[in-house]
Each structure stands twice: as C-alpha cells, then as structure tokens.
Amino acid sequence: MPDQPRLELHDLVRSYAGRRVVDGVSLSIAPGQVTGLLGPSGCGKSTTLRMIAGVETPEGGRIVIDGREVAGAGANLPPEQRSVGLMFQDFALFPHLSVSENVAFGLKGRGMGRAAQRDRVMDLLDRVRLARHAAAYPHELSGGEQQRVALARALAPHPRIMLMDEPFSGLDNRLRDGIRDETLAILKEEGTAVLLVTHEPEEAMRMADEIALMRRGRIVQQGAPYNIYNAPADRAAAAFFSDVNVIRARVKGALTDTAFGRFLAPGHPDGAEIEIVIRPQHLRIDFDREGGPRPTAQDGTPARARVERARFIGKESLVEFRLDHDGSRMIATVPSVFLPAAGTVFWLTVRRDRCHVFPAGA
Ligand SMILES: Nc1ncnc2c1ncn2[C@@H]1O[C@H](COP(=O)(O)OP(=O)(O)OP(=O)(O)O)[C@@H](O)[C@H]1O
Known about the structure:
Helices cover 22% and strands 35% of the residues. It is α+β, with helices and mostly antiparallel strands. The chain has 2 domains: 7-239, P-loop containing nucleotide triphosphate hydrolases (Rossmann fold, 3-Layer(aba) Sandwich), CATH 3.40.50.300; 242-359, CATH 2.40.50.140. The strands form 5 sheets. Strands 7-8-9-3-10-11 form a 6-stranded mixed sheet, with helices on both faces. A 5-stranded antiparallel sheet has the order 2-1-4-5-6, covered by helices on one side. Strands 16-20-17-18-19 form a 5-stranded antiparallel sheet, with no helix packed on it. Strand 4 and strand 5 form a beta hairpin. Adenosine-5'-triphosphate (ATP) binds at residues 16, 21, 39, 41-47, 199. This is ABC transporter ATP-binding protein.
C-alpha cells in the first residue's frame, strides 16, 4: 500500500499533575516525508515525541506505525519494537566505543551476520563522510562530526520513523546549516518518515515538507511551510515566524477605516474589533516627495510616518516608524543597508494582498 501513512497520531492526550500538556494531537506522516513539529517552549512537543518513541504512555488516543497500532486502548509496544530512531540535542555517543562500534551498536541482536553489519556501518559512515574516522573515538571528533555519527547510529537499523528533538541546537551557527542539509539528504535517501521537533521557525522551514504548528498542547495549523507563513491561522501563528505589525480597528458594514485607508473585513460583525496583521517586509517605503505616492486600489492609501530608529541587522535593515495619524509604531525591513536618520519623513504603504485580518485578541 504505497499511500499508507508511515506514522499516524489520533487524538493523543497526556496530562501532568492534572494539566493536559498534549490535548488531542492528530497527525499523519508519509514515508520519506519530513514534518516539523514547531511551537514555543512548553507547548507539548517533546511529550508528543516521547509518546511516539514509547517512553511515555498516552492516556488517550492511538499511535499507528505502518498500519499497526503501537499504542492505544489495545496495545502498548515497548520502544525497541516500534522501529523508531531517535536523535536528540545531547545525543551522547558511547565514549568508550569507536565510531564504527557506536554505529554498529544499534544493529546488535537483529540477527544480522558480521559481514552484513560491517557493510551497513561502512556504507553509513561513507554517506556521513566519516569512513576515515571509523576507528576514532568520539572525543577525537568535532561537534559536527559527532552529530553525524549519531545520525549514522540512529539510521543503522533502518528505522521506519526518525524522531528528532532539537537535534542541531548544540551546534554553532556556521556548522548548523551544512549539517542540517546533509542530514536531510541522507534521511530522504533512506525514505524514513521524520518528525522533527523544534522551536525555531527557520529550522522547520528549512527542513520540513510540512509544518505542524503547536500551541498549548494542540496543533493549531498544519501545512506546507509556504502556506503556514503566508496564510497564518491567527495572529499568534503569524507572529511566531517574524515580527508583525498590528493595526487595530473597528468594523462598520464589513469595512474598517485605518491610517492606510479602508479595508474589507468580510465576515466580521458590525462593531467588532479586528487586527490587521502585516509582516515588516510587506510595508512599502516611499520618499516624501510631492505629497507622497497616489492611493491605488491594490495598495490603499499611504500613511505619513517618521523614522524613530534604524538598524542594520545583517542581511537587512530594520526601520521603526511612528505614524503621524495616531502615533502608532510600525516596523519595516528593507534588504541590505537602509539607515535613514531619526525624524526623516516617509510614506508607508501596506501590501493589501499580504495583510491578514483577524478578530482582536484571538
Ligand atoms: N515528566 C513530567 N512531569 C511533569 N511535567 C512535565 C513532565 N514532562 C513535561 N512536563 C510539562 O509539560 C509541558 C510540556 O512539556 P514538553 O517538554 O512536552 O514541551 P516542549 O514543547 O517540548 O518544550 P521545549 O521546547 O521547552 O522542550 C511543560 O509545561 C512541562 O513542564
């Protein structure tokens, strides 16, 4: 059955001290797919992962691997029978075993002949580019190399599912991108389904085919990274990925007036307070010439604003403005170096197609 999900979670529940930290999580991952379980600290990501691994028992719901229930009302398989590979931040290689012995460790007791074991170990070490370090000990390797041994060790027994909990957070920035890409390439070659737990949106967007955004024990949105970024379910989902500007307004006749002209607010009742959310890169900045740019149907009305502060933050510049209209603060990001002096007047326009309208306080 090519379409059968590798991993299915159905309505998983788990509480600690009477508090539900995982509150009805459902999820499905296809073979070869990488799903990023993304959310703020304490939202229940690791608890979900531990239930899949089998080191924690769900109090409700079911876990199914390749069509077979491994946890639920009728089953509770021990971790070693679930065909799950694990990779954590503190991945602890065995210090007294060589690199190849570390990788071979996961193959013990699987009825594999010595030659077949050696072939599998050497094949994996080749693929993580560590074959020449096969006889070295973990303390002789760099952090990135140790991480690659941990990956080879976790993959050795051909797990159906790889569970990764912030596996790259112990590595320094420069190493991290390279190791992430390599790891992903190898996982894809192996066809393993991956659940990657992270609280870093960038890591999830870089690695995952699909992101499940988790908050307070629940999955609030799930989909391709592009869709989650560009069509957030609510204000908090938008704000999780970047700074956001929020314009508060009240609805009258499915419309609302703002410093940027009228916005449509279909579906929001008269008198309701709404929030218009826009990312900093979707503000357009124009110089203060001839009374500013003309309003257009697409972009609405420009609003006059003064620079409060501008900083260069690497790839882009971050400029903070105050709107003349009501003194509210807006931030814009501009590619490369753009550092206007405080007090300089500009006109800001919001890209209407990139604005998201939500009920206030949702
Ligand atoms: N064994 C435990 N006993 C009591 N409370 C726990 C236990 N494990 C987790 N919790 C609580 O459950 C909540 C969810 O924890 P969990 O580790 O799943 O979150 P997380 O999203 O993985 O967070 P982080 O990104 O910080 O690791 C937290 O409030 C945590 O304090």
